[in-house]
Write the structure tokens for this entry.
Amino acid sequence: MVHRWLPRIAVVISVATGCARPAEGDRSTLSVGLPYGWGEAYTVVQGNDGIDTHRGLERYAWDFAMPEGTPVLAAAGGRVVTVVDSFAEHGRATSFAERANVVVVDLGDGLFSVYRHLAHRSVVVREGERVYRGQMLARSGNTGMTEQPHLHFAVVDHKNQSVPIDFAEAPARLLAVGARPLSRNGQPPPSELPHDVFLANGIELVGELPPLPWRGRALLISGRARGDEVVAFLLDRATHEVVRQSSSAANVDGTFAFTLDLAGLDGLYDFAMAVPSPAGTFSSDFSIPVVVRPDVALSFGVVP
């Protein structure tokens, strides 16, 4: 597990981060979240001053054993400065050292968070994008110079020297190899969208819409309507213009099932459903804010 990422920029502009830089010689004042989701716990397989590779520049790095495909979350907010997710192989040979997929986030004040060994084509953020603590960045993988699937995480300075950190959920001094710190990063699992959310529009949903962000693929919608037809539509949040819509005739008993195509969409939208009027027009007095991101296919499956 050799890690040789170097920051791409020498001059760093400070950004709001939600974390504090440690004072010189103070090992415990930089606090970040664990780089994985709320309520999850993964084993520390190598910590600070590790017996394998966490020496020298990598002294304060962390390795968490994770099944491939585990969501990797931002430990602190900042701006994405590096995205690499084109590699698909791993091995112990030194030739793999520079073939790990990685996301690097500029935290401001000359500090960067590094997420390494990510899954092939799994990154869901882009260089230049601002991210917040708890936002999904990618999926964990087994790329580069590795022996097993895991996430390498560190905070480094502009010289690529790792710096001491504490996790908000567990002080570093308590995390020996074999520990399984429980994450409180990100948000708790989202509440299910109430089936009667569009009841005022004559529509009752059946089943669950997927959690956000929605991916750019066909969104299955089913339910029961008080009318002969149902329309689902997305509005541009700034202009309130319809950017995508789909409709379906309802069965005799009012049931319906159809898809709304999200392909090619990327951004913030408002989602609504309605039963058209006899004149064929449709509208809604309210909508649900949603985020749509491009679909990302992985070598082992598709991001849900």
Notes: The longest strand covers residues 150-157. The mean pLDDT is 83. Residues 93 and 105 are 28 Å apart (CA to CA). The radius of gyration is 23 Å.
